[in-house]
Design goal:
Helices cover about 30% and strands about 35% of the residues. The chain has about 140 residues and is an alpha+beta fold. A three-stranded antiparallel β-sheet has the order 1-2-3, with no helix packed on it. A hairpin with a 2-residue loop joins β1 and β2. This is OsmC family protein. It comes from Flagellimonas algicola. InterPro entries: KH_dom-like_a/b, OsmC/Ohr_fam, OsmC/Ohrsf.
Length: about 140
């Protein structure tokens, strides 16, 4: 299967990129780099892709396993190298679950399945970064 994305220059430092979903989004540099800061930053989008990919896996497994979770969020904290080309060499991915009836073992299993088996973006990151996976349970 092939994905084809078109990213069109809008002038100055701004671009618009499409997605197979039919939606578009804007990419722009910050004022320090000659942009207006009116769009997403490319490297940060990679972190959103990573969290989103794994999050979809975990959300699907929460549903399949019929688990009770009031809230769920993923914090992605990445270290950028100092030298050009700058890239993420270390990434911490924290899964935070909130609820009064959290089944910790099953939720951890869902994360493990995403991290080790299902999430393609996680696999891509694994090729260039050291990943540190953490799980935090917030019981109500």
């Amino acid at each position: 299967m092939t994905n084809h994305i078109t990213t069109k220059w809008l002038g100055e430092m701004a671009f618009e990129s499409n997605n197979p979903s039919g939606h578009t989004f804007k990419i722009d540099a910050g004022p320090d780099d000659g942009g207006k800061g009116e769009g997403f930053r490319p490297k940060a989008l990679m972190l959103s892709s990573l969290a989103g990919c794994s999050g979809l896996d975990v959300a699907s497994l929460i549903k399949k396993m019929k688990l009770e979770v009031d809230d769920f969020q993923i914090e992605t904290i990445a270290n950028l190298t100092d030298e050009h080309p700058k890239y993420y060499d270390k990434v911490v991915i924290e899964y935070h679950f909130y609820g009064s009836n959290l089944k910790e073992a099953k939720l951890q299993k869902a994360i493990d399945l995403s991290v080790e088996k299902y999430c393609g973006v996680m696999e891509m990151f694994r090729r260039f970064a050291e990943l540190d996976i953490k799980t935090v349970f917030h019981h109500k």
